[in-house]
Amino acid sequence: MILTELPSRTPAIVDTVEDHGPQDNIARRLRELGFVNGEEVEVVAMGPMGAEPLLVQVGFTRFALRRSEAARVRLRNGAAS
Predict the structure, then answer these.
(1) First-residue to last-residue Cα distance in the chain
(2) What structural domains does the chain harbor?
């Protein structure tokens, strides 16, 4: 599952952030922000127009992400513990 498919207010665990090339600055920045393997993530809210941006909480911090950015975050199979 990817982050854009996660229902609102449903906790999940980050598996990986997908790179779209060898020097993918967006994927690198997502990892720097805390989207790393094992971290809990949750979609808090969605914007009114096309559900963009997504308000996402990772750890104790919230970020607004474009759907194209959030689609790079792969989640583990199964529920968060």
Answers:
(1) 17
(2) 3-75 (2.30.30.90)
